[in-house]
Structures are given as C-alpha cells and as structure tokens.
Give the backbone structure.
Amino acid sequence: MDALGWRNTMREWALPDAILAAAPESPWGFPAELFRSRAELATPGDLSYANRRARDALPAGGTVLDVGVGAGAASLPLRPRCSLIIGVDSSPEQLAEFRRQAHRGGVTAETVQGEWPAVSTSTPVADVVVCNHVAYNVADLAPFALALATHARRRVVMEITGRHPTAWMADLWWRFHALHRPTHPDAGDVVSVLRDLGLTVRRHAEVSPRRAGGFERREDAIAWIRRRLCLEATRDTDVAAALGERLVHDGAFWSVRPPIEPVVTVWWDVQPEIAE
C-alpha cells in the first residue's frame, strides 16, 4: 500500500452521516481515566518491546518527543534515561494528565497542544520520537510519518496493533446499526506506506501482555463503548450484553478486552544509524 491507498482505505472508516447525526454524544476521543491508569502502570522496570527500542537509541540525559502522548504511557517508562519529555496531543485534558504523571515521576515535561503534523513547526526536535497507537487515527500517514522523522536525531519508534484497533467491534456495529466495517488498514499496510516513503523500517510483532489500565467502575467501561457506537445511554444494558465476556475486571480495573492481537513495533533510525 502507498500513501494514496492509505488515504482511500481510511475514508472507508468514516461513519455514515445519519449515524453521526443521531449520536447523543461524540463517538471520538478517549476518556482521560483510561490513559491515566495506563500511564500509572507503565514503569521503567516493565518495558515493552517498543520502550526497549526507544531506550536503546536514547543517550543518557537525552530528550524524547511523544506524539499522541495521552497521559504518557509510551514515554514515561524512559524517564530514568532522559532529561526531558515533550508531549504532543490535541486534548488539553490529556496534556494536563501527562504533566501530572511526569511530575509524579520526577521528569521535566513540556507540552504542545494540537494536531500532528500541523504543530510540528512549533515542536522541538528530540533524540528519540515515540508514537504509540496513533497511526490508525491518521487520515494521511505520509506527512505524519515524515514529520516524525524530521523531529528525531536518532530514532523513531511506533507501536501499533496488528489490526485496526476497532476491528474487533465489527459485530457490535452490525448488531446495533446493520453496518459493515472495513478490515484494513493493518500493520502490514503501515509498514508498506513507510517503506514506500523511503524509510528503512524494521518491524517486530509479538503477543505481549495486554495493555494495563481501564476504569474503576463497570458502568464507565460500558459507557465508553456505547458512546463509540453512537447510542443513547439507555442502551447500556444492551451494550453490556453484546460485549459478553469481553467486559472483564482484572482485580483493579474494568476494561473491554477484544481477542488477543499481536502488538507490532516499527522503527527506523535517522542518520547516523544507531548500532544495536
């Protein structure tokens, strides 16, 4: 897949106007609680594969740019090795939570509010750029990825799911709206687009422990999926029934867990190439 193919495929994910017009709340965005819980549980002692690839390229006292930072789960585990984390996000609530988590972890943080790559011209360059679970929200991946590359002195690391992260909801969309959902793009398409841009991308996939975090209250986990489905609050019971065993409690949080998917890390070095 090339950049044009990506743009065309992403258009297929647009929701019909009739469904959006009838939605009582916006289906977009993510609850701050979800990202906060993930950031609090992401620690330097429990690094993901993507964390390790970023750490390997990070000089002592280096800087990290986290695009789509949320509450900082992708970058805060790197704090023992870095002097500054710059977080970019379109949500002021997420940026405020990231600043709180950075202060809690004892690392200096700066924030840039806005959509990437629109805000790239006002964003500092860093040693390492990380970008976790954002690619499938990007309508035009080529300029997005190239702006990541121009902001890294050493390496760019992206973590994504093997399939589009809402592909698991296909049965719910059919059940509540009789709406078929696409099956692409997937991780292979991400890699194809990046390589078509001339980036020397490496890829690693593994089934790893599920990302931690969730909601303290069961009803909040249900409500999140219900909002994404553009349904009224009165349908919470129906949504819970449709979720079935995918709605789980891990002893600390309620979350919705789709079938296990591999987590894919893609990364590329900026000259001079980093020795492994």
Strands lie at 62-67, 82-89, 108-113, 126-132, 152-161, 202-206, 247-249, 254-256, 263-269. The longest strand covers residues 152-161. The chain has ten helices and nine strands. The mean pLDDT is 91.
